[in-house]
Amino acid sequence: MKSKTGLIIGRFQPFHKGHLFLINEALKQVDSIIIGIGSASVKDKNNPFSFEERKEFITRSLQKHNLLQKVISILPINDYPSDDDWLDEVLKKVGKFDVAFGNNEWTNGILEKSGYKVVRVPFHKREIYEGVKIREEMKTSKNPHKVLQKHLP
Questions:
Q1: How many domains does the chain have?
Q2: Helix (H) or strand (E) holding 120
Q3: What is the phi/psi pair of residue 137, to 5°?
Q4: Using CA atoms, how far apart are residues 44 and 98, in angstroms rounded to an integer?
Q5: Greater confidence, 136 or 56?
Q6: pLDDT digits over 77-132, tens only?
Q7: What's the CATH code of the domain at 52?
Q8: Before 153, cis peptide (omega within 30)?
Q9: Domain that includes residue 101, residue range
Q10: How far is CA 150 from CA 14, 17, 123, in A?
């Protein structure tokens, strides 16, 4: 039996085919999802895309793959020095959810420690679809936009 609502939190720097795989796997187990975009207000070399840009990448991809109707919301999640403060931010913004999906052990650990069910979805083609590798490829390319487009689902 499917749980009702799933939660996926990630930085999505940038959103790529591995993230789309995660969403598809989650939607096999839940009817709808909430997406939290982490490090929402951070912009640096490891976080080159703004919250708005990442939300747009995700929205376009989900529209293209006929999945947007299964998304309740796409929300910004800010960073905090304290895990408890971060969790408070998540719970205030997200509201009720039945299960979280992901493969970030820091995020999974905080949620599990607070009593939430977490499903670990294995990485999909991690040797290709990893944010740090995509960002590095963009930095060294003469055409970073083309690199980005290649990896957006």
A1: 1
A2: strand 118-120
A3: -60, -40
A4: 33
A5: 56
A6: 999 999 999 999 999 999 999 999 998 889 999 999 999 999 998 755 555 556 66
A7: 3.40.50.620
A8: no
A9: 3-151
A10: 11, 10, 19
